[in-house]
Design brief:
This protein is mostly helical and 159 residues long. Helix content is 42%, strand content 0%. The protein starts with a helix and ends in a 16-residue tail after the last helix. Keywords: Membrane, Transmembrane, Transmembrane helix.
């Protein structure tokens, strides 16, 4: 037989047995036993942290003695992270302040005018839209591509 006829015969066998059900026994599985799923899921046991043998009250003090302080508060304070106060916001120059005012002021005027049902002249509508576009363009142009002046020689991450 030629290799082509062997291949055709294999395909015929595959097509003929396409709808057949598997009659394999579970012991004849083609994977190792370590891959089998157990019938009952394994349970994880978490041990509580070990306490010192002297106890929280000291070696010569009985364990049932009352403690004046609340131990839960100390644990929370010890594990609670309080971030440092944020640095102050940078001071903005006048052109940047005007650009932000135009960016938000134009749409805000249009929103108030629509909500109050004001009659808007053509020049007022044009000015509001132009202020929005101009403020956006001014902020993008002032953004710049260079790193900040105080960044130093290394712009990497700080831990």
């Amino acid at each position: 037989m030629t290799p082509q006829s062997d291949e055709d015969e294999v395909w015929r066998q595959i097509v003929a047995s396409f709808n057949d059900t598997a009659e394999r026994d579970s012991a004849d599985q083609p994977w190792p036993d370590s891959e089998n799923v157990p019938a009952e899921p394994t349970r994880r046991v978490v041990k509580p942290p070990e306490e010192p043998s002297a106890g929280p009250h000291g070696p010569d003090e009985p364990e049932d003695a009352t403690d004046q302080r609340d131990e839960g508060d100390d644990d929370e304070e010890a594990e609670h992270f309080v971030p440092p106060p944020p640095p102050p916001l940078p001071k903005l120059d006048l052109p940047t302040k005007l650009a932000w005012a135009a960016l938000f002021g134009g749409p805000a005027y249009l929103l108030v005018a629509v909500m109050a049902d004001w009659h808007m002249e053509g020049w007022a509508l044009f000015t509001a839209v132009a202020a929005f576009i101009g403020g956006f363009v001014a902020l993008v142009v002032r953004m710049g591509d260079s790193p900040p002046n105080d960044s130093g020689w290394d712009d990497g991450a700080r831990l």
